[in-house]
């Protein structure tokens, strides 16, 4: 699949729920697509005005393209996603969870087996005040556009079904 077609397809799928920005510069890094979603949930008792508790869930989706995937590219992108946990998440008493989802599009060269294994082992979770203020999780997916395959860590397993159009 061609890079521009893939970016357009991801944009179409994300635009149903996310606020989308294209060609963004975030924290000194050029990003092809950035999407943000937030939702507040609450329980009420005896009417809409009597709120027992409420919580919010957020997701930041960051799509970046590279020509070839190397160990350095992968490490830099994963460290960037971990930095986004610190800079984008604002934990408070009603914050429950924030997903930082990174999609790395590789346009050429295929992906080496050692890098595939490394992607599958990557994980990062940050708890805020012993989880009283929620937590954030980094999900990463690497898509090989040349071969039409995708690789992801355990936290991003549910993304495979949503981005199945690439295969």
Describe this structure in words.
With 167 residues, this protein is of the alpha/beta class. The chain is 26% helix and 41% strand. The protein has 4 helices and 7 strands, in the order H-E-E-E-H-E-H-E-E-E-H. Strands 1, 2, 3, 4, 5, 6 and 7 form a 7-stranded mixed beta sheet that branches. The longest helix has 18 residues, at 71-88. The radius of gyration is 17 Å and the shape is globular. The mean pLDDT is 90.
Which descriptors would you attach to this protein?
167 residues; alpha/beta; 26% helix
Compact summary:
The chain is an alpha/beta fold.
Outline the fold blueprint.
Elements: H1 3-14, E1 19-26, E2 29-44, E3 51-66, H2 71-88, E4 95-106, H3 113-121, E5 125-127, E6 135-144, E7 149-152, H4 159-162
Query: In percent, how much strand structure appears in the residues?
Result: 35-45%
Number of DSSP strands? 7
Q: Kindly name the structural category.
A: alpha/beta
Q: Mind telling me the C-alpha Rg?
A: 17 Å
Provide the low-confidence segments as ranges.
Answer: none
SSE order: HEEEHEHEEEH
Mean pLDDT: 90
The description of the largest β-sheet is: 7 strands, mixed
Helical amount: 25-40%
Count of helices?
Answer: 4
What global shape is seen?
Answer: globular
Distance between the termini: 9 Å
